[in-house]
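Tokens as discussed.
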């Protein structure tokens, strides 16, 4: 029979009409249709007068699930038995699912044909003239087979309860509630797990989950996945999409209809809908997704306030760009941008329908991914748009996308922008054009001065996921949103720069300054001056910029010692009304000779002269006294200042930044007049030894930063009662610190790396974070127990010998770091178990030997590097996510510790375990399904039969196995295998298609690696000290870095095509390697190092290696020639290549800065020729300044920060060169 290609029906009902039609069959059929399940029954679907048998056969064939209702009289009907035979054939031939209902009969009665079924079969046998033996045998076999199937038994159960169970099961089987999701999902599992943790902990609890993030980040997709995962377990399901643009009454109607599976009557107003929802749905356990919610009123109309409308056990998932609507939820889950690797994977699936780009598209794909900046929507749309196009079309599209966002992406993101009020839009556009990465606390002064209500507006922008405030209070906007904002500015001006409100492009800004009229709309502009644009310093260029409120000038490469290159230094003189609305002037590298007295400073609130060469006697100080409203003065990096100016004219100043003024020795006494000053930043003022006494007058000061200064004393400032932050890190001369005056206000205190030996503790009840690293203190006072608000305590690298029991009184403490306290020994106080808020504890590299019972709130525990650590029992730490544990023993035969408690840590994501061979992992260790990163190290450590299957990172050191089989780790992206002396073979890795980095080091017995072909994401391959390894097989089209060192038996490299995209290649001490193929096609090669290859005679032509900057060759005695034009070469090192006779084209050395040629007799003759006289001259001019030993750049030694770096070019005493110095600039 031909297999049906599609289904006409979801369910085929087979029943005996006499005893079921007006009973269970009718009831079930009606319930199925109400639930949206298309069911077939003969009297409903076949028109009168048609032949029944052929239509029935067709209906059975085209039904997805077959349900025979096996009643007492079912077998009495030959017709029913024929249907049953047909069902069994469909099951056996096409995999149809039969789900029988046993209606007042036992399955065994059907299976063995007893009772009514025996009587019915006997009657059929007696009618032999009508039914032959073969037919009757088929009936009996069909009954026997169906009688063994799992189904439902209906005896003494109510029809309502029974049909509800059947319908629910069928909805699961048919996936009727399932919604379509992209087949190209990437990086969703972690998000699903976090949400399911909250939803799934107790299914009887009502839960409301909020998913928030910027447009296009994947909120709807995540909500859909959760919905599909849960929908089968609920009485009703509803997914309301596009809530932002849909009338609420329509949404209310859909909600009621979907949950009750019946058409809802028309709802005339919102209040009526609320009443119906409360009354009709309150008894049903439902799962509800509200997608694209924009206003709290939408939630109130659909699910009410809190959970009072919902039946116990219901789940609600809200997806929104506006975080502000998520007030009363159990979890706020933010979706952020994807990282680069996952972005490339998602992009490749849409652009190429595969997991990685083809070789010729790798570079273009990376550019596209960078443009998309991790936004899934952009990755999908742009990837699909580029699918099937050639490389030239790609280049054109990507060039446009660098400045103009994709139209579809723009439309999606623009929804959020259009919903903003005018002031919010203005602030957003300012950020997009100029202010990304700047301190929001400074930026707000400009908006405040312009009456933009920045605090409220910024909160709206944050809640709507249009901006973020990153670490250090820095403004952050996604690149796609930034481009959207800039495009809005362009479109509002009809693409005419002079009509734009903001001009951020330097070339456009220069063009705008050339135009004399029509520039009044410009509010903000960015310029860069150098000799080419010196004429644009003249004041005439700025006269018509009457509405300019933001001016950013970057002083370029100008010869300030030659003033005649510039226009008159009086260019900005004589027009005091120039730029009358200027609020922010940012002029970095401001020249000392330049006079800027023409600008109106009346409304100036922010002045940034960072890295300028202004001095104490600069004439501009007097003019700046006109800036009466100045709020921020930033003089960062003004290294010629010895003392600050007089501040008496700036009584409104709130932020004074003098960071990096390394010659500053005096802060003017007038600082005491700055009654509104909230921030004083003196970080890095190395020569500043004393703070003025007048600082006591700074009553408003909240933040004082004196890190890396030479101050010796912080006196008691009794009037500084608002100080919240005091940071004095690296003030090595600071020995006295009296904080009594600000003890009740201080929130953050850092005295790390100072000379303080006695802690200035008193009543510090408000302190939240205390950092005391590298202090020579032996104990903490018991008064530390009074710090009831302390959350972070960092006492790492101190001389502490014990922790006080009073630490158990810090009821808000979340993190404690006592790592590298070498004198801290024995046990830690048991009172630490009382800290119910404690999340992270770091005790690595201490003398601690025993850990008491810790609070269940712990998420991170770090206990590595402790000499005497006993194996702790951590079985109660069910929330632990990170664990580093090292167990060492001094006695020769210690009792084998048990790690069986590991199986209970089901939330563990990262585990680093170092221990001796006696410690074994539990056999069910593989059940830790959330474990992503695993590091195991020990002396002949045994591996369990299987590791957790979701590992993405695995590092093993010192295992005892001879054959390593990790083929089941399909999500592995990084694998490191070190110091496994018995390891002979590593088996197939082809299923680990996500591998990006492989590292095998110090494996003395390793003979065989698997063929690496198919690892399309592999970028880094490192194999070192594997003396028996003969070959590295595979075609690695994405390989960027290859290191093959000390593999004395190696004869064969990977397929030459593996070098197409190589950037770094290091090959050394491979005595049997005769040739290196594939480099002739390496266009991205940046660094090539080859040494100790005694059989190597030639290198491939390197002409295509246009990016090659570093070439090192050492002790290759048979090497005869180096071919190619190396126009980017900056470092050339050749030593011990005595046979070298043919050299690179002379044009290769124009950019050369480091040169060493030694013990290359044949090469010396070539260098004497006129053709290479420039190279010879450069060699003579090489300076004698010693250079540090050349190690492999960027290399973190085998990924282990605890190993000391090795000198990679120590090739026997005469390498690396002792004198590699920059050549004189040409």
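Sequence:
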């Amino acid at each position: 029979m031909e297999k049906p290609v599609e289904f006409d029906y979801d369910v085929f009902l087979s029943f005996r009409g006499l005893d079921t039609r007006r009973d269970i069959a009718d009831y079930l059929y009606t319930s199925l249709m109400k639930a949206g399940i298309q069911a077939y029954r003969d009297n409903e679907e076949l028109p009168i007068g048609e032949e029944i048998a052929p239509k029935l056969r067709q209906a059975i064939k085209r039904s997805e699930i077959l349900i025979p209702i096996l009643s007492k009289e079912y077998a009495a009907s030959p017709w029913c038995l024929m249907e049953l035979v047909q069902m069994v054939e469909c099951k056996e031939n096409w995999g149809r699912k039969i789900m029988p209902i046993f209606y007042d009969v036992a399955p065994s009665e059907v299976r063995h044909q007893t009772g009514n079924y025996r009587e019915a079969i006997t009657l059929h046998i007696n009618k032999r003239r009508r039914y032959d033996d073969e037919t009757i045998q088929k009936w009996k076999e069909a009954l026997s087979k169906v009688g063994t199937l799992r189904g439902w038994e209906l005896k003494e159960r109510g029809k309502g309860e029974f049909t509800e169970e059947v319908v629910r099961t069928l909805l699961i089987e048919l996936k009727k509630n399932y919604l379509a999701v992209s087949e190209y999902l990437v990086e969703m599992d972690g998000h699903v797990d976090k949400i399911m943790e909250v939803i799934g902990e107790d299914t009887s609890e009502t839960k409301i989950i909020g998913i928030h993030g910027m447009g296009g980040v994947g909120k709807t997709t995540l909500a859909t996945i959760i919905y599909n995962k849960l929908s089968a377990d609920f009485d009703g399901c509803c997914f309301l999409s596009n809530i932002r643009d849909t009338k609420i009454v329509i949404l209310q109607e859909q909600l009621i209809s979907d949950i009750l599976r019946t058409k809802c009557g028309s709802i005339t107003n919102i209040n009526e809908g609320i009443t119906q929802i409360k009354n009709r749905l309150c008894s049903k356990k439902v799962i509800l997704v509200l997608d694209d919610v924009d206003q709290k009123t939408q939630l109130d109309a659909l699910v009410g306030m809190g959970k009072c409308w919902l039946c116990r056990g219901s789940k609600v998932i809200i997806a929104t760009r506006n975080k502000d609507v998520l007030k009363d939820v159990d979890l706020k889950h933010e979706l952020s941008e994807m990282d680069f690797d996952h972005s490339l994977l998602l992009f490749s699936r849409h652009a190429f329908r595969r997991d990685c780009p083809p070789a010729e598209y790798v570079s273009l794909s990376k550019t596209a991914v960078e443009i998309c900046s991790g936004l899934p929507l952009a990755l999908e749309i742009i990837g699909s748009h580029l699918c099937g196009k050639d490389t030239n079309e790609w280049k054109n599209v990507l060039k446009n996308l660098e400045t103009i966002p994709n139209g579809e992406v723009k439309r999606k993101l623009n929804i959020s922008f259009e919903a903003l009020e005018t002031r919010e839009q203005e602030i957003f556009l300012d950020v997009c054009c100029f202010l990304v990465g700047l301190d929001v606390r400074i930026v707000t002064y400009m908006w405040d001065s312009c009456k933009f209500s920045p605090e409220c507006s910024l909160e709206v922008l944050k809640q709507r996921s249009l901006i973020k405030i990153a670490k250090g209070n820095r403004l952050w906007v996604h690149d796609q949103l930034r481009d959207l904002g800039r495009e809005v500015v362009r479109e509002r001006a009809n693409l005419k720069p002079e009509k734009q409100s903001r001009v951020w492009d330097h070339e456009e800004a220069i063009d705008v300054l050339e135009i004399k009229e029509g520039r009044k709309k410009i509010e903000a502009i960015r310029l860069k001056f150098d000799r080419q644009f010196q004429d644009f310093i003249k004041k005439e260029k700025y006269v018509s910029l009457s509405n300019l409120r933001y001016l950013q000038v970057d002083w370029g490469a100008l010869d300030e010692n030659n003033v005649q290159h510039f226009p008159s230094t009086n260019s900005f003189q004589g027009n005091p009304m120039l730029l009358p609305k200027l609020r922010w002037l940012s002029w970095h590298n401001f020249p000392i000779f330049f006079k800027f007295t023409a600008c109106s400073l009346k409304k100036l609130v922010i002045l940034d002269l960072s890295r300028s060469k202004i001095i104490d006697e600069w004439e501009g100080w007097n003019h700046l006294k006109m800036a009466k409203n100045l709020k921020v003065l930033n003089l960062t990096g003004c290294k010629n200042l010895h003392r600050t100016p007089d501040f008496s004219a700036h009584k409104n100043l709130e932020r004074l930044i003098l960071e990096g003024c390394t010659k500053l020795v005096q802060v003017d006494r007038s600082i005491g007049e700055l009654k509104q000053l909230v921030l004083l930043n003196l970080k890095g003022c190395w020569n500043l030894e004393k703070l003025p006494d007048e600082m006591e007058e700074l009553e408003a000061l909240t933040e004082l930063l004196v890190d890396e200064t030479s101050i010796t004393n912080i006196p008691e400032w009794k009037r500084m009662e608002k100080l919240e932050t005091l940071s004095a890190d690296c003030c090595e001369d600071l020995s006295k610190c009296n904080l009594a005056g600000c003890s009740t206000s201080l929130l953050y205190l850092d005295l790390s790396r100072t000379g303080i030996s006695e802690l200035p503790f008193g009543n510090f009840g408000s302190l939240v974070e205390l950092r005391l690293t590298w202090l020579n203190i032996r104990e903490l006072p018991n008064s530390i127990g009074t710090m009831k608000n302390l959350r972070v305590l960092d006492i790492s690298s101190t001389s502490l010998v014990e922790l006080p029991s009073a630490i158990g009184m810090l009821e808000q403490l979340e993190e404690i770091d006592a790592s590298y306290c070498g004198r801290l020994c024995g046990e830690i106080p048991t009172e630490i178990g009382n800290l119910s808020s404690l999340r992270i504890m770091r005790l690595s590299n201490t003398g601690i030997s025993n850990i008491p019972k810790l609070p269940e709130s712990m998420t991170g525990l770090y206990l590595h590097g402790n000499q005497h650590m006993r194996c702790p029992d951590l079985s109660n730490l069910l929330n632990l996510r990170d664990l580093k544990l090292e167990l060492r023993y001094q006695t020769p035969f210690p009792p084998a510790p048990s790690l069986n408690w590991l199986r209970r840590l089901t939330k563990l994501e990262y585990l680093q375990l170092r221990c001796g061979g006696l410690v074994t992992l539990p056999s069910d260790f593989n059940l830790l399904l959330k474990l992503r990163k695993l590091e195991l190290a020990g002396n002949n450590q045994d591996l369990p039969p299987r590791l957790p299957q979701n590992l993405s990172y695995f590092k093993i050191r010192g295992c005892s196995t001879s054959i390593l089989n990790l083929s089941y780790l399909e999500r592995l992206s990084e694998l490191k295998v070190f110091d496994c002396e018995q390891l002979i073979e590593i088996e197939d890795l082809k299923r680990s298609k996500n591998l990006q980095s492989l590292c095998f080091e110090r494996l003395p017995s390793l003979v065989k690696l698997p063929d690496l072909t198919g690892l399309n994401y592999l970028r880094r391959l490192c194999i070192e000290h594997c003396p028996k390894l003969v070959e590295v097989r595979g075609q690695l089209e994405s390989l960027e870095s290859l290191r093959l060192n000390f593999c004395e038996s190696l004869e064969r490299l990977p397929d030459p095509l593996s070098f197409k995209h190589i950037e770094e290649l290091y090959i050394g001490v491979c005595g049997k390697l005769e040739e290196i193929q594939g480099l002739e096609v390496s266009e991205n090669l940046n660094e090539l190092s080859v040494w100790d290859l005694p059989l190597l005679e030639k290198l491939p032509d390197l002409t295509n290696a246009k990016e090659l900057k570093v070439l090192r060759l050492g002790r290759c005695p048979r090497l005869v020639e180096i071919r190619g034009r190396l126009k980017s070469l900056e470092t050339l090192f050749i030593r011990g290549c005595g046979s070298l006779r043919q050299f690179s084209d002379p044009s290769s050395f124009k950019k050369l800065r480091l040169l060493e040629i030694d013990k290359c007799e044949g090469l010396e003759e070539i260098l004497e020729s006129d053709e290479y006289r420039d190279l010879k001259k450069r060699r003579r001019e090489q300076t004698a300044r010693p250079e540090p030993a050349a190690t492999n750049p960027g290399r973190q030694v085998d990924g282990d920060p605890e190993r000391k770096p090795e000198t990679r070019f120590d090739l026997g005493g005469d390498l690396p060169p002792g004198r590699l110095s920059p050549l004189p600039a040409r």
